## 1
Amino acid sequence: MPPVSASREQAPVLTIGKLAAAGEISPDALRYYESEGLLAPVARTESGYRQYGEEALRRVRFIKHAQACGFTLAEIRDLLQLRQTDSACCNDVRQRAIEKRLQLAAKIRTMQTMSAALDRLIAECADSSQPVDDCPILAALEQVNGDNGKNPAR
Amino acid sequence: MKVELIYAPGCVDCMAAKSALQSAAEAAVGGVEWIELNVLEALDYAVELGVLTLPALAIDGRLVFAALPTPAQLREELLRRADDD
């Protein structure tokens, strides 16, 4: 997939090092964004060094903010393409934000369940001086039926 | 049978599809309760159902279609459930 264009006809003003420093990101990350079609240099020098326009810094910040909100790079590429699609409107972006919110809420629930399961295991292991062979946490994790070792059918 | 359409406000596809789906549901089985849920007003419930993409369709409190079905698919699903009862 061709990289999503950062802007139209920009003068090349930034090297990869300068863009990385300004965007508080590593040059390797910028190269990775390029390979993922998120950000391309506007030009290369005769020696092959990447050169970016000023718009690139806004693009880097956009990507970082979106990642902080939980969007994957593929989803960010989708958002960037929406921005360049004349028929797209804010509702299209909003729908993606709502779906991301749902996905985050589902992850939070899963993690709360995991946390509660650990709480139960920790409570079962009140006698921490037992030999490790008798450790109820290890025993519970070995259970294949997911009942945490409580009342196993015999 | 309770059919719930979970949608994002402003979703053009949902609005376009919903009347055909509602008609198909009501024609397929008797006593269909058709409910439209704005996900922003029912976020916890949507998460409980396992909705990750929108629009989605639940039947009797269970997520059955993670993407909107065609009216024919919905009809088939409702008939199958009515037959199971």
## 2
Amino acid sequence: MVTDMKLRLDELAKALDLQRDTLDRWIRQGRIPVKKSGMECSFGYDTLKNWAGKHNTPCVLEVPGPSNERPLEAITLLGALTRGGVVYDLEGGDVPSILRGITDVVRGVADGERETLYRLLMEREGLVSTGVGNGVALPHPRTPMATCALPAITTFFLKHPVDYSAVDDLPVRVLFLILSPDVGIHLQLLSKISFCVRESSFIRFLEGMPSEADLLSKVAEFEARL
Amino acid sequence: MDTQLFHIFRNTPTGRETFLQSVYFCTMMGVSPVVYVPQHTKFLMYFEKDVVQVDLDGSYLSSPETAEKHARDLAEAEDLQLGFFKPKNFTASTLPDIPVDFDFMCCPRSISDLTSKIGLGYIGSRVRRIIQAAHFPVLITSPSFRKWSSVTVFFGGSKNAVNALRLGIRIARKTGMRVRLFTQVDGGKTRDDYEKVILESGLGDDMERYVDDWLLFFGGKFEENLYEVPHDSLILMGAYGHGVIRDILFGSKMETIQSVMPNNLMVAGPHYLDRGV
Amino acid sequence: MLKRLCKRPSALPRIQLDDRLILMLAGVMVGIASGLAALVLNRSLEAMLEFVHSLRGHSWAFMLPGAGAAASAIFLDYIMKEGAGHGVPEVIYSVSRYGGLLRLRSSISRLISSCLTIGSGGSAGPEAPVVMSGAAIGSNIAKLFKLNDRQRVTLVGCGAAGAIASIFNAPIAGLVFVLEVVLGEWSTVNIVPVAIAAVAGTEVSRFFNGNQIAFSHVSFNIGVADTVAAVGLGLATAIFSILLTRALRSMHHVSAKVKFPVWGRAAIGGCLVGLLGLLFPDVQGEGYHAIREMIVGDYSGAFQVAAIAIFAKILATSFTLGWGGSGGIFAPSLVVGSFTGLAFYRGVTFLWPSIPLVGEGCFALLGMAGLISGILQAPLTAIFLIVQITGGYEVILPLIVVSVVSTTISHYFEPASFYMKDLVDRGQLLRPGTDARVLNDLSLGELIEKDCLAVTPHMTLREFVMVVKRSARNHFPVEDPETRAFLGMVDLNKVRPYLFDTIMYDAVVVEQIMDRDVLSIAYGDELSHILNIMDAKGLFSMPLVVNRRFVGMISKATLLDKYRKELMVQTTDNP
């Protein structure tokens, strides 16, 4: 079935990822099955789709109808921390026991997945410690978790400082577990949280073991500065 | 930023007046002039769907040795950078091709050979064909240099009149001048009918921002009503579309305006396109 | 059944006016129109030649070609205001650069002017004017239907095909000529409408003239000796093609030095032809009459006469065309070719009387093919033309040999054919799908990348690094903060070491790390020229600067992307 469509020239140029000038010229030269009338152009949807396939051109055209596009939520540190929540007084004397404790209580992970997560975290720590200094560690799996739909960061305050073989050899008191659906988001979050923990004022703030609400408002304040 | 006005330079006193008009337009609009000093009396313009041959009269070729200097002096007096166009492509050895990707073009009231003999005030058939085919508007200058300080759009509600209005708003945006509309109401139309056309073209906001006066005439002779247009206003109008009969009508109206009004005239054709947006 | 159909018209198969159908219908129209144009020119030429012939006796008869040529120059220059030329190159130029846009006036101007030149006795051919006129008719019909460039080019081809087909009563020759010489592209989209137009043009000529073959049909009995001799003839025709090409060209230069108005020059050339015509009457006019005589074997002159006639015809043609007469080169080539063939035959049979050659008529035909192949460098056109105007395939073997030998040798000395020489010299022969065409079609505006972030000369390196963070590109134009004038560029590749040196962050300003003499591009620069600069200097991108302002970057990476798309779009057939 041929669906005839009408679009403005610049809209079509965008859909085909072409410069407006190129599209104009191709229509004039008759190289593309599109007809022009003033600022608008008309074409058969299937014909054009077929043409685009043959010419290695992307063709992102919506068939006329209701659009079902989901607006993308911006990735914020605040959002991720809110989703992850805060855990206080985590028990444990060494890295494996702490990671075990983390995986047992973290939210949003199915019970069957906890063992996998533990293994991934251990694997990552085996590579090089995630203790970034100043008593903070950022444990995370190397590859994104397929089951994790939205990025989340869980904050853990340890009961006793633990030797984490951090870069500055200081014992670790706070951990941020980062779980994200893809690498890009992961890097963004990592970069944002690193920015926070580099600041000495933030470290001092963490030492006071703040409440969840205080922590979130402090992070919001920092994120605004980024 | 890189908009250009194409001017065919005539190295005569009349040609100087025309060129001064171009220079004035360029300074007002921040456009850079591109000057062609013809070496042949003929040239071709290959438009999208038409090829137009323009035959200049012999006066365009007079004293070529001083032409470039004269043009440069006039432009530099206004602190304008001038580009000279040298034809690269020739259809035949004495027939250069002129590109058509300029943003404006300046024509004296007639640039064609034959028509100039009929009457100085006549808008040549070539100019008309250029307007019909080009995406740029054509500035038809007054016989002698005159400044303008406002813009008057002749708005008759047609598609090309909308183009003229777009052009007027474009000029207003650049120069900060006010736009005045002139409408000779025909038939039983009301102001609402015209406003509807403007709103449908998506010009409602611009209309509010830039247009501050609307001369609507529900009666009276067109020629007499033209008196209301200030003497120092740039007149903008749209050319009519296709069709022989409408062409004749279009001729008569445009011809009336240009024979009655000494003002500068700028005409937008059916393919008018603002590449700046 | 019929009643039922009439009641429900929607059940009838709806004829959809699909683009191809439109092209075919328009092709028929154009073919008929250009066929008629050819016919009109042919008829009026005959009438005029007859009239002029009756004036032969007078002592001032030699001035007739001069008067005719002057009249045609005046007509073209002052009435039609059209630059002179013989038409076919202009058609090729317009096809390759402007989608076949031609002026309406071209559809009659050349017909009349060439009629004046040739009819009065000038030595030129009516083919090129007819091709020009047919092409202009096609172009303007396309304009009427508001067709796009591609379709317009096809219709231009239709016009040319119809004209050639009609004038020679040879549809395949018309088709092949158009594809080989005018369009330079063999695609199905073109072939079908052009073939239809060729048929229409031929039918027009047959309707009015009867199915007579342009030169009467004689059957030949070809032997091996003829095919071998064809090699020698190929050589001879190649020499004369080169001679004719160069004579025309140098005559142009000579006449350009004479400070006379165009019509005055044309008159001189015409009178010279008239004088030459007193000695060799055969060199005047388009020369079809002489060709007919030679093919039938009626030509009376001896070997020497034929050999001198070759030179006389070459001279007459270059006098006519080189001095401003109007007409084409096609018919004179045929005449020179047939003289060459005849002289070659007489020469060979004189030296080795025992060799069993087929006959001088056949060699005249072969010579024609050789000249057309050599001058136009279009061997297929030559082969199909001769096959069709003789109406038989007996000559095909020696015909191929002559054409191939002649084309090859002429190509060696004259790399571009007569029609294309000027275009090639100016770099304007843009055949579809070639590098030159792709580069010509892409404009700077389509390639420009405007997402570069500008920096100012007084920025510190620290601030600059912040800009680098936000940018997706490796190049940063440096602009004057007040006037926004372009000062230079910072190339990330060159300053990379400093970027990681935090000590330098506040010590260095952009001014110190920027390149001041950057090669820049201006609007109107040809893409091929820009690429040459990039290659020569080892650059991968260059800034476009207009009026001292930075506009954007042109980079090879983007260019390749667009180039490839363009090439694909140009070389695949579209529905």
